[in-house]
Structures are given as structure tokens and as C-alpha cells.
Amino acid sequence: MNFTSKQLQYLFYIDYFKNSGRPVTDLAEQLRVTKGAVSQILDIYGKMGWIKHSPYGEIALEGPAKEAVAEIKKKLKGIYCFFEKMPDMEPNMALDCALQYICLMPRQSVDGLIWELNQKDRLQRIRWDLEEKIPSMVIPFSDGSYLIPFSVYKADCNEFSMWDKGFVKPSKMLVINGEGTITLTAKEFRDNGNSGEQFRGKLNRLSCLYKGEFSYIRAKKSEYTIPLYYIRKLSLAPDGTLCGTLRIRAEAGKCGAGMPVSEADILFSFA
Predict the structure, then answer these.
(1) Cα–Cα dist 204/202, whole Å
(2) How far apart are CA 209 and CA 204, in angstroms?
(3) 253 CB neighbour count, 10 Å cutoff
(4) 87-114 b/e with 16+ CB inside 10 Å = b?
(5) Which residues, 6 or more positions from 91, have their beta carbon under 8 angstroms from its beta carbon?
(6) Mind listing the pLDDT tens digit for each residue in 236-268?
């Protein structure tokens, strides 16, 4: 069954907010329409057999609408990160941009972008820094401020950590009199739990491994400033880029219920 791009976006957000506890309000805010308009849309979609209402007011997709949104979700996994990493892109805006791209652009364009992103993802997951040898290098930066790209992996693993979504990218590096710091800015993010539920989280406590012990990093307005000498390993990427690995221990705040304290490796690219 063919849906219009607008119908697909509406159906996606109906599914997205179905367990929010206030789906009509959330839909109205997201779609920038009145609650009355949302109620009318839900009534029309119900008559068309695309959604159903439970006796308790819950909403669920049905038939072809459920299948269409399931397909969108698969593509979002591959394309959301493309928009999320753009400068000053908030998570909700990144989701909306990715959804519109999927719904509006030709299938060949969407599938092509997903393929390209998957290729880059495979390269990024090569953890060349996991080898025991630590090259004897110094970070080649003169005094000044720099923007440093980075990725966050599960500790000693090729798999991305949920904390890869928990920081504003890129990080900020400041070098003064030959000594430097890197500042990470925490942001709220969404992640799927092991049982499939979605929850929100934001960094509440950060520690960094230094000389065998984790040292607490005090936050200032969601910014965590870390001395460069905390970087435990320097390595060269396959393309010759100098990289530094920082081991962290991260803990989410109250909105991250169910999110455990976890260790992760931040891999900075000093291009």
C-alpha cells in the first residue's frame, strides 16, 4: 500500500509516542498542529484500519501502517547518525530530519546513503588502538584552541557505546604553554534498552582512568574539562591520523533510569 510522505511521518510519530502517557499532546507539539487536529487524524486513520485504540486509551498501528513504520525504523538506524553528527543538531531535530529524508527522497537515494554510512561505520569500528604497544609520541599542537572529532566505544571493544550519543561533537581542545585540556559537553540522548524499551539519559557523573585509578571530573554547565595527560594511549589510525584513547566511567542522571554505570573508551582523532 502506498502512503504519502506526510502520512508516513504522522504514522511514525503515532507509533513513537504511543506509550508516552500523553500521545495526543506530544503529537500536537511534534507535528505543530492543535490537539483537535490530532484527534481528527487519529479518527480518520482508525476508520482506515491503520491504527486501533485499546479500552485503556492506548494506540497501536495495524496492518500496512505497522509494516511501513517498521521499514522506516530499519532505515532510521542507518541514517539518524548522519544528521545527529551535524554541528548544533539537537537529537529531536536530527530524528525529524532523518525521517523527512526517508519519507521524501527516492528509495535509491535513501538506500545509497545508508550503504555509504555503513561502509564508513565498518571502518570506524576497527580499533587499531587496542594493541598493547603504546607509541612514544607527543601531540603535535601549538598553543591555541581546536575542535577534535571523537567516537565512544564500549571498553576494549569494537562496538559503539551508548555514550557515543551522549556528548556534543566535536570536542574542544585548548593548549596553553604546551599543556592542554579537552572539554566534553554532555547532552541528553535516547537509547534502546536490552528489552527494546526506549529511555532518555544524560551524563550525571564522569570519571577518567589515570595511573590505574578513576578520577572524578567536576562538571560546569554540562561541560567536563579533562587534562590531556589523562589520555592513556596514543596510536596511529590506518590513514596515519594520530589518535588518543581515554578510558571513562560514566553514569546517567535520574532521567536515565535503568542505565547502568559503564566504562567506555573515547577515541579522539587529532587530525
Answers:
(1) 6
(2) 17
(3) 15
(4) eebebeebbebbbebbbeeeeeebeebb
(5) 84, 165, 187, 188, 189, 190
(6) 887 788 889 999 999 886 554 456 688 999 999
Residue 66: CB atoms within 10 A of its CB come to 15
pTM of the model: 0.54
Buried-state track 10-28, b at ≥16 Cβ within 10 A, e below 16 = bbbbbbbbeeeeebbebbb
Helix (H, G, I), strand (E, B) or coil at 117: helix
C-alpha grid cell, residue 51: 491504527
Query: Residue 129 has what DSSP assignment?
Result: G
Q: Over the stretch 140-171, which tens digit does the pLDDT of each residue have? A: 788 899 999 999 999 888 888 889 989 999 99
Cα–Cα dist 121/159, whole Å: 10
